[in-house]
Amino acid sequence: MGVGPAKAMTVMPNDERAHYWTHPALPEVDLLDARYVRHTFGKHTHATYVIAAITSGVELFHCRGSLERAAAGSLALVDPDTLHTGHAGEPGGWSYQVIYPSVATMAAVAADLGADRGTLSFAGAVAVDPELTQLVQQVHLAAEQNQVLAASTLLRLALARVVRGHARGRSPDRQPAAEGLRAARSARDLLVVQLADPPTLDELAAAVGARPFPLLRAFRSVYGLPPHAWLTQQRVSTARRLLDAGTAPADAAVTVGFVDQAHLTRHFRRIVGVPPGAYQRARRNVQALGR
C-alpha cells in the first residue's frame, strides 16, 4: 500500500481553482489541476517540461515568438527554460491537467527508448494527440486515487509517447557575440549574488564592463527577459526552494528581496499558478508522507 498524494487546493474568485501537488509514486514530477478564468501567467519559465492537457475552454500563450492557441482536447507543450505566458482564450477561461516532469526524468525515458542523447525539445507548442491527452488525465486520476502502480505506469507510458511522437533533439539557440554573452552571464551571476539588493542597470553594466543598452540587449537575447524581470523570476524560484525547506512565506519574501509577503504572493501566483502558502502545504504533506 503506497502513501497518499500531497495536495494544495486553492479556491479563487470567478470559480477559479488550482491544485498544485505531488505524489511520492511520481518522483521529480509536479502536477497541476486547475481552472482559470481571469488569471494571467506573466512571462516565466520552468526548470521542467510542461505537458498540459486542456480539458475545457481555450488557453492562449506566447511561446518562442508566437501566440499559441490550445483548445479543449489539445495539449500545450513547453520546453524547460523556455519563456512563455498563459491566459484565457475565451470568456469562460480554460481547465487543464498538467504534468511537469524533470529534465532527468525525460532523459531517463528517452534513454530507455534508445533515443539520441542530449536535451529533448518539443516539435511544436500545441499538439492534438487523444491518446496522450487521455494518458495525462489517467495519471492524475490514478494519483488522486492513490493507485501507485497505475500512476507510475501511466506516467511512463505518457512520457514515452511524448518522446516518440512529440520530441526532437534541441537545436542550439542563437546567441549574441562572445562579448555580449560574457557580459550577460556575468550580470546574471551578479544578480544571483545580490538578489535581495540588486544594483541599478548602470551599476550592473559598470560591474561587468559593459554599456547599459548593449548589456540590456544581450541579456534579453540570452535569457528572454530584461534584467529586472529575470530578477523577479529568480526571486520566485529562490522563494520556492526556501518554502520547500520550511521557511515561512513572509520570511521567504523578505529573504529574496520582496517588500512583503503580498508582493511575493502576487508574483508567485502569476508564475507558479498558486499562492506560496498553498504550494508550501503541498510540499509539507508529501515530505511527511514520505517519511
Question: Can you give keywords for this protein?
Answer:
291 residues, alpha+beta, Jelly Rolls, Arc Repressor Mutant, subunit A, two-stranded antiparallel sheet, 12 strands, 23% strand, AraC-bd, DNA-binding, transcription regulation, HTH-like, transcription
Integer average pLDDT:
88
| Residue runs with pLDDT of under 50 for 5 or more positions | none
Tell me roughly what share of residues is in helical segments: 40-55%
What is the fold-level CATH name, i.e. the topology of the largest domain? Jelly Rolls
Q: Total number of β-strand segments?
A: 12
**Secondary-structure content class:** alpha+beta
Shape: globular
Strand content: 15-25%
Give a written overview of the molecule:
The protein has 291 residues and is α+β, with helices and mostly antiparallel strands. It folds into two domains: 9-169, Jelly Rolls, CATH 2.60.120; 178-289, Arc Repressor Mutant, subunit A. 45% of the residues lie in helices and 23% in strands. It has ten helices and twelve strands. The protein has helices spanning 103-112, 130-144, 148-166, 178-193, 201-207, 212-223, 227-244, 249-256, 261-272, 276-289, and strands at residues 9-12, 16-21, 29-36, 41-44, 50-63, 66-71, 75-78, 84-88, 94-101, 120-122, 126-127, 167-169. Strands 1, 2, 3, 4, 5, 6, 7, 8, 9 and 11 form a ten-stranded antiparallel β-sheet that branches. Strand 1 and strand 2 (16-21) form a beta hairpin. Helix 4 (178-193) crosses helix 6, helix 7 (227-244) runs antiparallel to helix 8 and helix 7 (227-244) crosses helix 9. The protein is globular, with a radius of gyration of 19 Å. The chain starts with 8 loop residues before the first strand and ends with a helix. It comes from Streptacidiphilus jeojiensis. Residues 185-282 form the HTH araC/xylS-type domain. Keywords: DNA-binding, Transcription, Transcription regulation.
